[in-house]
Design brief:
By secondary structure, the protein is α/β, with parallel strands linked by helices. The protein has a single domain, classed as Alpha/Beta hydrolase fold, catalytic domain (Rossmann fold, 3-Layer(aba) Sandwich). Helices cover 42% and strands 18% of the residues. It is built from 13 helices and 10 strands. The strands form 2 sheets. An 8-stranded mixed β-sheet has the order 1-2-4-3-5-6-9-10, with helices on both faces. A two-stranded antiparallel ribbon has the order 7-8. The relative contact order is 0.16. Pfam families: Abhydrolase_6 (PF12697).
Amino acid sequence: MISRIPVRGRWVRVRTSGDASLPTVVLLHGITRSLEDWDPTFEALAGEFRLIAPDLSGYGWSAPHPDGAGLAALGRGVGELLDALEVTGPVHVAGNSLGGAVTMTLLAQRPELVASMTLVDPAGFGSEVTPLLRVLGIPVLGKIIATTASRPGAIVQERLIFADKSYATRARIDHAMAIAHETDAGLTAWKTADELGSVRHGILPGWRDELHTTIAKTPRPTMVLWGDADRVLPPSQLENARSLMPHAETHLIPGVGHMPQLECATEFAALLTDFLQRNAIADLPRAASQ
């Protein structure tokens, strides 16, 4: 079920499935994206887990967070949504791209809420990023690009995400155009990109180093997946994730781009389900208390 719910005076669009008796999994999308990126995951995991996938603050059809569009505000928004849904945790959290960085931010902010992390082609493990996101850091021009909707631009972005271009469907392009025309998500994307990176340096190291230091104090069971054909965030960054989180389980998925949950949905769901079952919340009393 997709609904809009009030969270501290603003509207948040969220998809939910399952009831509170089931282990809870929170699914967080990437920059410029929306909760629809998790549709196949909902279909695959239905009945086994309580699933929650929001449009992040200011993205999709969710209202912006009053504290801005940086990681701190995006993470806070997720925590506030869980509070509004009366989710007390701990919950499993999975995040793709920017959503991976938001997942780690939520752990840093609210460690009692997070039982495990699944990071899917996540931001935060290197400076390299596609030039299409780098240009958002150009003063004035970046804002114009982010807030100007064009179908050719949407086609380029969708094709960039997938190794198999057949996944850049007309329906996905139409969805991207609807968001661009009906919301201010482009402005949010520019604000997020402006805070986290620059045209010269790519993804900035300051926030990455601070985040890694913080989450190292509250380690959780972690799985990191990366498509080996990712052209948004290079798969070489998986090695950085392995070095920074030696306890993490890692998977490099052949022939897949930036969104394994869409491009190899069956394999992704199987890996996620296996990881979640092996790291059941009932077996994590220490994680819940830290």
